[in-house]
Design a protein that fits this description.
The protein is built from two helices and no strands. The chain has 64 residues and is mainly α. The chain has a domain of 32 residues. Helix 1 packs antiparallel against helix 2. The longest helix is centred in the C-terminal third of the chain and has 32 residues. The protein is elongated.
Length: 64
Amino acid sequence: MDFAIIGVVIVIVSALVGIFLTRRHKEEQQTPVKMIIFGLYFWGLVFLQLLIAAFFYVLSKHGF
């Protein structure tokens, strides 16, 4: 159950930060371009957060 909660938090944080970063680009007025930019931000943030979560998981299991 803890992994599911962590996964939901990662998705929510990535979506909110992706929306925030996409709205900063005022010069991009076309919707498809904004959707692609959001997708890049979203998946980049998901990947980064999963790397951080995996790092802390390994640290907690091996007791470093």
